[in-house]
Every structure is written in C-alpha cells, then in structure tokens.
Amino acid sequence: MIARTLFELAELCGAAVEGDGSRKVIGPAPLGEAGREHVSFFHHPRYANELRSTRAAGVVVALSFAAEAPDHLTLLRCEDPSRAFTEIVRVFSRAPRRPAPGVHPTACAHPSAEIADTASVGPLCTVGPGSRLGEGVVLHAQVALGEGVLVGAESELFPMVVVYDGIQIGERCVIQAGCVIGSDGHGFEPSDQGWIKIPHTGTVIVEDDVEIGANTTIDRGRFGATRIGRGTKIDNLVQLGHNVIVGEGSMIVAQVGIAGSALIGAGAVLGGQAGVNGHARIGERAQVGAQSGVFGDVPAGQIVLGHPARPRTEALRSMAQAARVPGLVEKLRQLEQRVAELERERSVSGEGSA
Amino acid sequence: MIARTLFELAELCGAAVEGDGSRKVIGPAPLGEAGREHVSFFHHPRYANELRSTRAAGVVVALSFAAEAPDHLTLLRCEDPSRAFTEIVRVFSRAPRRPAPGVHPTACAHPSAEIADTASVGPLCTVGPGSRLGEGVVLHAQVALGEGVLVGAESELFPMVVVYDGIQIGERCVIQAGCVIGSDGHGFEPSDQGWIKIPHTGTVIVEDDVEIGANTTIDRGRFGATRIGRGTKIDNLVQLGHNVIVGEGSMIVAQVGIAGSALIGAGAVLGGQAGVNGHARIGERAQVGAQSGVFGDVPAGQIVLGHPARPRTEALRSMAQAARVPGLVEKLRQLEQRVAELERERSVSGEGSA
Amino acid sequence: MIARTLFELAELCGAAVEGDGSRKVIGPAPLGEAGREHVSFFHHPRYANELRSTRAAGVVVALSFAAEAPDHLTLLRCEDPSRAFTEIVRVFSRAPRRPAPGVHPTACAHPSAEIADTASVGPLCTVGPGSRLGEGVVLHAQVALGEGVLVGAESELFPMVVVYDGIQIGERCVIQAGCVIGSDGHGFEPSDQGWIKIPHTGTVIVEDDVEIGANTTIDRGRFGATRIGRGTKIDNLVQLGHNVIVGEGSMIVAQVGIAGSALIGAGAVLGGQAGVNGHARIGERAQVGAQSGVFGDVPAGQIVLGHPARPRTEALRSMAQAARVPGLVEKLRQLEQRVAELERERSVSGEGSA
Fold first, then answer.
1. pLDDT in tens, chain A (354 residues)
2. Do A224 and A244 touch, CB atoms closer than 8 A?
3. What value, to the nearest 5°, has the Cα angle with vertex C215 and ends C209 and C216?
4. Which one of 3.10.450.350, 3.30.450.20, 3.40.1390.10, 3.30.360.10 gives the CATH number of domain C4-92?
5. Of A201, A208, B350, C324, whose CB is crowded by the most CB atoms within 10 A?
6. 3-class DSSP string for C6-35
7. Given strand C27-28, what is the order of strands in its sheet?
8. Is B338 in CB contact (< 8 Å) with chain C?
C-alpha cells in the first residue's frame, strides 16, 4: 500500500494547500465514499451535499472554489482539478497487469504468424496464418485473430476481441473486450429470389493510438477500407458500418451508430446513442448531441441536436415552441371573443344607423 | 415426457376449472401454436383472434374473462394468469443444465485461483491468479475471468462472459453470454497531443441476485466502484458507464445507455433504448419511457417520457400539441379576415361620418 | 494478382464502353482512393467532386449519366451500376477462406455430437452433447454451441458466436462474430421478495438463408419459439426479445431493438436504432424509419416515422409544424394590436355617439 502526504500530492499537480498538508492518504475515492485516509475531488455544484458531509482528508478544487466545506478538510486548490486529480490517481494506481512476453502454451498460433519476442499471446487465443504482432503487443486471454492480421507495436487487445482476416491495427491501440473488427457490412441487393449478399472484399484500418470500447462492432469495407483515424476514441457498443471514414482525434460515445460510407471529420464529437445516416458527412470538430439523428451533412465546427439533427440554437428553439402552443390556443380564443364582440356591436350599430 | 391433467395444473396454481379438467397436456404453448396436447394462456385482448381459433386443450384466463372461446376449450380461471402460467411452465421445464462440478481439463485456471469443490468451470475457460469461485458457481464454456475476480456462491456465467481484473460478483447472479464487466470507462482529457487516457483504477461491484443480459457492457470506476444493487435485472446490450450506481431491485431494459456517474434509485424502471446523461440522478421507483433521453434529475416515483424527458402528462400533452398547429393556422387565417372586414367597414363608416 | 481489361469487365456485366476499354485493372476501389490500376463506380451526385478528380482507369455509371468526368476516364455505362459493380467486385475477390473439413484438435466437441464429414470445426470451439452439424458447416475459431444445437448444411458461424442449448439454425445461414442466440428473455414478475425470474423454456428457430450481424442478441422464447424467417437479414448489435416472430425476407438494420412477442411481417424493413414495443405487429413490407419508436401496430405496406411512429406524411408534416409556431406567435401579436385599435376606436366612437 502506497501512502502519500497531501503536500506531496499538491506538489505533484501544482496545487496550493489550504489546511493540514501533512495528512497521509492511501488513495483516491469519490466524495461520498471517501474515508479519512482518502483524497477526493470536487468539480460540479451537483456534489455540494457530498462535499459538505465528506470524510475525506483532502479535496482537489478549482482556483475559484468558494463552496461550504467541512472544517477538517484540506483543500488542494489548482487550475484544472480534473487533470490534477488524474495525476493523483496515477500515483496510487498499480500499473495495469502486463502479461509476460511469449505465447501461452494453450494458445493456438499458426506457425506462419510472426510474433515479436516481446509480444504476449494469452491463454486460448487463436492467431491465424500470416498474422504479424509487433513489439510489446498484448493479447489477453481468448482473443481471436484471423488470417493476415497486423497488430502494431504496444497495442493491447482484451479477451474475446475478434479481428477478421486481413485487418490492420496500428500502434499503441487499446481494444476492449468483445469488440468485433472486420465483420461483413450489411449490404444486400433485392432480387426475385430475395436479398442477394454483396461481397465485402475491403478491410478495416485502425490507425495508431485509437481506443475502441467493449462489444463495439466495425464492419469491413465493401471494397477499399473502413478507416479509424489516429487518436480517435470510441466507446462501448458503437456500430460503424462498411466504408465509414473517421478522422483523427474524434470522440464517439457509447451506442452511437454510423451507417455505411459516412464521413466523420477530424476532432468531431458524437454524443451517446446518436445515429448518422449512410453517406452523410460530418465536418471537422462538429458536435452531434446525444440521441440525435443526422440525416444530412453537418458543416465543420457546427453543433447539432435533435431528430432530425439541426443547428443547436434552432433545435433548442424548436423544442421550446411546442410548449408555447397551449398559450397560443388560449390567446386565439380570447381574440376570437373580442372580434365577435366587435362584430356584434357593428351589427347593432349598423342596424341602429339603418 | 411429463403429462399432467388440467385438474392437476389448476390445483397447482389455484385456478377454477370450467370444462373438461381430465384432459392431459404435455406442455405449454402460445395460443396460435398450441395443439390438443398443450395448455396456453390468454392475457391481452390483442390475442382474441388466436383465442377463437386455438386448438389448445386448456387456457389460463383471468377471473373477469368473458371473451369468445371455442366450445372444446377448458378454462382455468384465476386471479393472476401470468403468474399462474409461470407455475405451469415450471412443471414442464427440464431443470436447466447444470454441468458437473470440477474444472474441465481444457480450462486454464491459475493455480492460485480458489475454486470451491462444488463449482463447475467449463471447457476452455480462463480463470486468472487469485480469483475465487464460491460454492455451486457455474462457468459455462469459454468464460474469461481476470486476476483477483470474486464470484459468489451459486452464480452462473454463460459462454464468452468477460470479467476484468479485480471485479466482484455476488451470490446467485446470472450473467448471460458475451457480457463484459470491468472494461475501462470512456474517460479522456483533451491536450495538445490529442486525447489523454484517464486511468481507471476503480472496480465494479455486482451485488447478490443480479441478472445481466447478453452482450451488455459495464465499465469499471475511474476510482471507487461502479455498483449494481441487489436484485437488479439488466437486459441485453445495455451500457453502464464508469461509476454508475444502480440501486436495489431496479429494472433496465435492452439497449439502455447510462453515462458515467449517473445514479439510478432503487426500484427504478428504465424502458428500452432510453439514455441517461452523465451525473444525472433518477429517484427511487421513478420510471423512464422507452427511447427517452434523461438530461436532468428525475424525482422519486416520477414517470418521465420524451427527449428531453419530461413528466409523463406534460410530455404527452406536448406530443399532442404539434397536431393542433394546423388548426391554429386555419383559425388565425379566418380571424384575420374578420378583422380585416371590421377594419374595412370602420374605414368606410369613418369616411361616411367624416 | 488478377488483372482484367475494362472490355472484359464490361462484357461481364453487360455495360457499354466509352473510352479506352483495353486498359487493365487489378481491382475495385472507391473514387477517391482509386489509382490508375483500379475500376470504380459512381452512383450518387454527392460524389461528383470525387468523380471529377478520380485517377481510376474506369468507372461504372448509369445509362442516364451526364456528369463532368476527367477526359482519361473510361465509362462503363449500364442499367444498374450497383449490381454491375457487385459482379465486378466478385471477379477480383478471393473466395472467402473456407477452413479445411474436420474438427480441429484443440476444439472440444462432445462425443455424442454428430458432425458431418464435410463440416469444419475451428480451433478452441466447444460443441455440446447431441448437437448436429450438417454438410459443409463452418465454425470458425472459438465458437460455443450448447447441448442439442442444430446447424443446417453450409451455414457459417464466425468467432465467439454463442448458441445456447436446443437452438435450431437453418441451412446457408451466416452468423457474424459475437452474436448470441438463445439467452433467456428479460421476463420477471414483481413480488414481495423482489423480481422473480420467469423460466424461459422455449427456443429460437433461425430459418434458412438468414444472416445475423456481429454482437446481435436473440432471446429464446418464454415457451414456444423466437423465430427468424427464411432469408431475413439482420445487422449488428440488434436486440430481439423473447417470442419475437420475424417473417421471411425482412431487413433489420443495426441497433434496432424489438421487444418481446412483437410480430414483424415478411419483407418489412426496420431502419437503424428503431425500437418496436412488446406485442406490436408490423405488417408485411411495412417500413420503419431510423430511430423511430413503434408503440402500436403498423398496417402492411405502410411507411412510419418518428417517436411515436406515425405514417410518413403525417410525421413529416408534424415535424414541419413546430417550425411554424414562431410565425403564428408574431401573426397573433399583430392581430391583437389591430383588434385593440378597433376596440379603442369603437370606444371613442361610442363615447362620441353617447
């Protein structure tokens, strides 16, 4: 067990200490779960109650922090509490388990596969003919690589990952458990005999420094490649169709679905459960709200929301409009009465003047 | 093959028999598929046609049942047809397959793992160092447990389940095939060099009597734990983010997505494909409609619907409003004409009086 | 490497050649990625830019094609460019890898399983007691079949597919990686002791010529069967609940969720991320838009959209209505002023005439 003083942690992340910095802590914990031996962090007013009652020894807070906190609490005040806290979490983290290099005796690697000496192939993995694993690659237990798969140096694949024949994965990628890369795209032509399968002879190219979440599925190209740009981060249970191109440094949150041949620009962010239509083009650094449905193109830098997705201000205004309809109905009713009254008087007055 | 008379089944579930109770049946079947050797049940007017033409020997119905049914049909009338029928289904069910205790010779269990004598580890499973399996635990084929995993007594894990290092699973849990527990949360900090991964050093705690569906994914905490409360039932393809806390006895239907640090109260029910924003709090026994998007907090006991989710009556009224707009447009047009007429006359009358 | 002249390819798919048909190509590629040794195709105005700058040797186009294209480009003009191009892709495709017949020595097949001589069971698969694999069946690596599973002739199952006990799969089916067939349905009865699991003693019947996508989940029936009709094509990450019946030749796109006992008619098409309520009935050849939520029944042939799903024209009109509300508000404001003016004058005039 590692123990550190709050002074040591503050120094590590450039924070100023207010209170007793000599107290020792053994790790990070959320405000509500922390004991006197933990350090925690506060970043959102939503957690004001947890802050008031926390038993933590110290809390990382923002420079502007002014909320009510227990007297015993030592504050570590800094510019970016989230990043500072990440540094602190790292101090207390066991290095993640790295299995020893070598091919586990229960793994089933084809003799023609080229596996670097520093790579690790876990128990009950399969590695197909002609596949190549770079230096420091880790396949945890029960990973399945097809024929002619390339995995770049230092990439890590968790259990039950499936990589179909001929797929390329870059360096320093992390592929979480159960992810499937290279399944056939959903392409069928109608015919008199029912749906005819379109052959999918393309591939998937996952560039360097990509992370892909658990049970996410990425289809191979019909021809050419489905491509995930360098540094892009993809969450769990995401679906990427055939020939989708994702630019560099994009962020795709859980359960997003992107249909075939859509183009996602570099640095774009797609919120959870959003959907993107086939062949749609989402510009660089554009943002798509959670659960939104993108049917057309989205210009670079634009934030879109709703179903169908529209620019943010337009979408919010439109969501607000329905709420105004009952008021309109009532106003219209009143106005009708006033007009009817005017008409009645006109008629009386008309009679009178007749 | 077990055969039972309708009298025997009626006694079992406290039903009153109307018709020939001496007929023997060999099992349950839906109304439309049943033959003369089956018992069925009727619980929704939607199936009135199937009822009229069913060939079943007997049908379990509610006390209030008064629909048209074939003359040959024996009725088993009772208070709660669904629960009664569950009892009947159970009579005819083979006990689900329980593999023999012991570790299959093809399984790969680390010598330091502690496996109870009555536990069963199926073919081609992996069990990491220091993991502990309680009495009566069943791992079906090809399950992957990491290092230091705890599985409580009588829990059952189906093929391809992946449990990462250090995760705790309670007693009498059922984890369906392909479920992933303990993958890293989707946490990244922006930087000049692109997204920097936030270490996820927390865990997942699955309490007793939880069921988790096929291919569902549950991320580990950034620190602290993602926690699934006792007796909660989770369907297939659900996503639970890092540090999500689900209370006891909740119900989460298929394809729901819950973002990081959200709090789901005890007894809450989330409909299929619903989404919950990060840090949102859903109160005890609250209900979220299918496909709804929860962005804020939901008070205890409230039923919410829509995107963004609002209280049920408000949401339904709002959905109805758009339909009123065309009527408003027409009314407004008519009123404008009437006002224009008044103005014209006023003008004429004004001229007249001038 | 296969090389073909454009003449040869044109003859193959019945296209007329405009330009130099003697040029040789070595494969298909998208317009933007193609080099001088590739053939490509153009089917949507959206790709007009890519067409203008493509380096491809030849492009398959429609009879009506009249867009601007580089001078060097040879056109292959035909009636159905997509189908023609599929033919061309096929010419250059390696036949997909078919593992050699036989049971891999690392596979774990129960002695009572009946495996046809021409079937192939890949490395580290498990095949339970009494299962039967027809002629030409392919199980790729690490597939898990339970007890009493039937797989019809020429069906192909990719890695990590899980088939529970007693499930039937027809002939010529393709099941992509990670798909789970036969998990228990999400059925629980409330009780004083919490949720009580309803036993699921039914099965799943997958008829001939069905394709099922990666990580899709299909629950077994509560009793009776969940059934996927002949020739139906299901995409990735789809959820089918217990006792769902899907007719023949339907198309279910990625991330669709269909709740228990729903009925999907033959030839129906469900767009991505759509949801269908339990017990709902979708008619033959009906179409459900992407992200739509079907709560009631849909008549045969109808196209529905939105949440809740309504007939297409109605739904589109309704989506357009909200946009009219701001105009209504303004019109109403103006009308109020005009009426107030009339009232003021009436009052003045009334005073005058008093």
1. 578 999 999 998 899 999 999 999 998 888 888 889 999 989 888 888 889 999 999 999 999 998 888 889 999 999 988 888 888 888 887 666 788 999 999 999 999 999 999 999 999 999 999 999 999 999 999 999 999 999 999 999 999 999 999 999 999 999 999 999 999 999 998 888 899 888 888 999 999 999 999 999 999 999 889 999 999 999 999 999 999 999 999 999 999 999 999 999 999 999 999 999 999 999 999 999 999 999 999 999 999 999 999 999 988 887 777 677 778 888 888 888 888 888 888 777 765 544
2. no
3. 55
4. 3.40.1390.10
5. A201
6. HHHHHHHHCCEEECCCCCEECEECCCCCCC
7. C16-18, C74-78, C58-62, C38-41, C27-28
8. no
Q: Which residues of B are less than 8 Å from A233 in CB distance?
A: 186, 188, 195
The Cα angle at residue B29 between residues B28 and B31, in degrees rounded to 5: 130
Q: What is the pLDDT of residues C198-241, one digit of tens each?
A: 888 899 999 999 999 999 999 999 988 999 999 999 999 999 99
Q: Are B203 and B168 in contact (CB under 8 A)?
A: yes
Of C162, C255, C317, the CB nearest to B178: C162
- Per-residue pLDDT at B9 exceeds 60: yes
Q: Does A290 touch chain B (CB under 8 A)?
A: yes
Could you please report the per-residue DSSP string of B297-349?
-B-TT-EEETTTTEEHHHHHHHHHHGGGHHHHHHHHHHHHHHHHHHHHHHHHH
Is residue C314 helix, strand or coil? helix
| A322, A328, B329, B331, C344 from B335: Cα distances, Å | 22, 14, 10, 6, 18
| Cβ neighbours of C352 (radius 10 Å) | 9
Close Cβ partners of B287 (under 8 Å, ≥ 6 residues apart): B268, B269, B270, B271, B302, B303, B304
Residue C270 and residue C290 in contact, taking contact as beta carbons nearer than 8 Å: no
Look up residue B343 and give its two tokens.
Answer: 């103005």
Please tell me the pTM assigned to this model: 0.90
pLDDT for B273? 98
CB contact under 8 A, C223 and B27: yes
Task: Output DSSP code: residue C322.
Answer: G
Closest CA of chain C from B323, distance in Å:
6
User: Could you tell me which of A103, A324, C139 has the C-alpha nearest to residue B142?
Assistant: C139
Q: Which of C162, C239, C255 comes nearest B160 by C-beta?
A: C162
Going from the C-alpha of C39 to that of each of A264, C51, C73, C88, the distances in angstroms are 25, 12, 10, 9
Query: What is the spatial distance between Cα B215 and Cα B228, in angstroms, rounded to a whole number?
Result: 16
Q: What is the pLDDT of residues B260-312, one digit of tens each?
A: 999 999 999 999 999 999 999 999 999 999 999 999 999 999 999 999 999 99
3-class SS at A107?
A: coil
Q: Quick check: B332 contacting A, CB < 8 Å?
A: yes
Which residues 65-84 of A have a C-beta within 8 angstroms of B? Answer: 82-83
Return the residue in A124, A157, A180 with the most chain C beta carbons within 10 A, the one to mutate for interface testing: A180
Q: For domain C102-314, give the CATH number.
A: 2.160.10.10
Break chain C into its structural domains and give their ranges. 4-92, 102-314, 323-353
Determine the residue of chain C that is closest to A165 in CA distance.
C97
User: Least CB-CB distance to B223: which of A29, A142, A323?
Assistant: A29
**Rounded percentage of chain C residues whose pLDDT exceeds 70:** 97
What single letter denotes the amino acid at residue C231? G
- Chain C positions touching B97 (Cβ under 8 A) are 146-147, 165
DSSP string, A233-290: EE-TT-EE-TT-EE-TT-EE-TT-EE-TT-EE-TT-EE-TT-EE-TT-EE-TT-EE-T
In 3D space, the residue among C291, C353, C160 whose CA is nearest the CA of residue B273 turns out to be: C291
Is residue A318 within 8 angstroms of chain C, CB to CB? yes
